[in-house]
Amino acid sequence: MQTPALAVESRTRRTPAGIADRADEAHPVDIHVGRRIRARRKALGVTQEGLAEALALTFQQIQKYERGANRVSASKLFAIAEALETPVGWFFEGLETGGHTAPAAGVADRLHAETGGREMADAWLALPPDARAALRLVATQMRILSVGASASGEA
To answer: What pTM, to 2 d.p., does this model score?
Structure first.
């Protein structure tokens, strides 16, 4: 009696976009999102343990997310974005897909992604119009002086 040949399961699968995805390798999108999580966490001075605690995870899980070894679910990415005080879309900025690069965030998204950015926006909105006008002049002058100082080699 001859033994039937066993079907060998392929380790390659197709993503919804039709991109070949090796089951034993991290997907480029997962790697990109993981790197962005790490960059934002470090920019805020948050440890892996601190982020893990805020999300009720282990720091090892954060490590896996940051390496792209484990995929981040939509709900977990939303929670990470809240914990890191940044819009969800920020994690996808600069991602190249299908010959296109994900657009950079708008000014509001970039402001919120900065440390203290939300507080700055809230403070701005709480100011009366004349105070906003004065502050806008001060900020414009600071930018001009900063550009002039960097052009002349000053710190």
So the answer is: 0.55
